[in-house]
Amino acid sequence: MAEILLYIEYDENKILDASYDLITGIKKNNEGANVSGVIVLHPDFILTDEIKNNLKKFGLDKLYVLKSEKPFFEKTEEPFLISGLIKNINPEIFILLSSTTGREIAPTIASILDTGLTADCTKIEIENIEGKLKLISTRPTFGGKLMASIICKKNPQMATVRVGTFKKEEFNNENLEIVEFNFPSFLNLKSEIIEYKKNEKNEFVNFQNAKMVFAGGLGLKNKENFEKLKLLCEKTGAVMGATRKAVDKGLVSKKYQIGQTGASTTPEIYVAFGISGAIHHIMGMENSKKVIAINLDKNAPIFKYADIGYIEDAAKVLDELLDSLN
User: How far is the C-alpha of 96 from the C-alpha of 254, rounded, in Å?
Assistant: First the structure.
């Protein structure tokens, strides 16, 4: 049976939710395929029964376990361990998250295996053509003006996919096969991390685990209103987002950008303040569970995607919400 291999990623103590999302997305859209995962266990990370049950619950059929002697933040030997596994099991497709780690290790793995890699995909499809799986990877190109769908001619066909592209669902597989592979540790690699410091400045926006996202567009008009939106997020526990046009106008930092050339997010509630609803923005939030749109233009495309629409000046609504919380 054709095998699709996924990289299972974790932080210091838990599997990333986006890894569960990825498992579900691939399993749901490829019924009958063997969806496997590979995890590299670093010291102090324990593969608990809860983790195993979650992997099974969200659709994984098999888990390959590799071990590294290096701390979890040092990924230098992971590409060699994973490449060794892939040479042994020969999956047709290998997919990673387009996360910091995924972007770090995927090019090295592709180079070791002498295969192609499509990076930072916003959409992936897998077709069964004459009994062989073909990965069709779609990503923005020419500065986000066009979308390119790319097919790799060699196996394993590789891609990194943006966080938020899929949303997890329960499959409740009856069994999860766990296979341990033991490769020699690569302790004599030429590069090493001398010191590791956590980023305490909150410079990155965590769209991945956001339950609520309040995003602003040009309808918020100025920087002052984006500062108000940030304050509203602080008061409600929401994560702030923005459109590319608002970023390009200098109204807000690029780290808040959601869309085709920004981040993807799948919150329970997504509130769009003054966002017109251009397709390149919709691509970053279309899997949100409930969308609330606030816009003066009753013909704004955002209303086509909204569960609740409110025709009003977004800046005015923002002020009213802040007043109600004071």
Answer: 24
> What's the CA gap between 42 and 67, in Å, rounded?
6
The pLDDT confidence band at residue 143, using thresholds 50, 70 and 90, is low
* Cα 291 to Cα 67: distance, rounded to the nearest angstrom: 42
Residue 148 banded pLDDT, cuts 50, 70, 90: confident
- Which of helix, strand or coil describes residue 3? strand
- Omega of the bond prior to 156 within 30 degrees of 0, cis? yes
**Tokens linked to 207:** 């769209």
Phi-psi group of 143: left, alpha or beta (phi > 0 → left; psi -120 to 50 → alpha; rest → beta): left
Backbone angles phi, psi at 238, to 5 degrees: -85, 165
Find the Cα–Cα–Cα–Cα dihedral 74, 79, 84, 85, rounded to 10°.
90
Rounded Cα distance between 203 and 38, Å, is: 30
Is the domain of 223 the same as that of 116? no
Based on the fold, state whether residues 140 and 18 are members of the same structural domain: yes
240 and 111 in one domain?
no
Model's pTM, two decimal places? 0.76
State both tokens at 92. 């047709």
CB atoms closer than 10 angstroms to residue 143: 7
What is the span of the domain harbouring residue 73? Answer: 3-180
Both 302 and 172 in one domain: the answer is no
